[in-house]
Amino acid sequence: MSKLTWDDVTARAKSGNVPPPRRVEKTAEQWREQLTPEQFQVARAKGTERPFSSEMCSLFEAGLYKCVCCGTLLFDGTSKFDSGTGWPSFTQPIEDNVVDYIGGFSHGMTRIEATCSVCDAHLGHVFPDGPAEAGGLRFCINAVSLEKVAGDT
Hints:
This protein is an alpha+beta fold and 153 residues long. 16% of the residues lie in helices and 27% in strands. It has a single domain (6-149), classed as Metal Binding Protein, Guanine Nucleotide Exchange Factor, Chain A.
């Protein structure tokens, strides 16, 4: 996969995303039964966890990160970096078709929401202020929307 750029992300937010590898759809009640209340609030109700509330922010080791709702692999630990923002940050998704981009206006600014393309779980947001050498993107992701898969990548 070639590196996504901010132009790619904004174009997808405006014109449509890449088709997902598969779809997982459940009712709100089914998601509530599967997830903790905090996971449901963030991933299904588009909430945001408190900054610096997760150990995942300072976890930098080999492994993959998957969607807490549907288990889709989303990020590789090698693309994770310390953004200092209080949320786990990544430079790129693991595949081109696992994250969708939705433009929106909230908290007084225009920003792009990142969701799991397979189940529509709210992951966080994408910003154009990531490490330049890695493509310039910062995927600012709620830790409760992710589950770390142990092991080498």
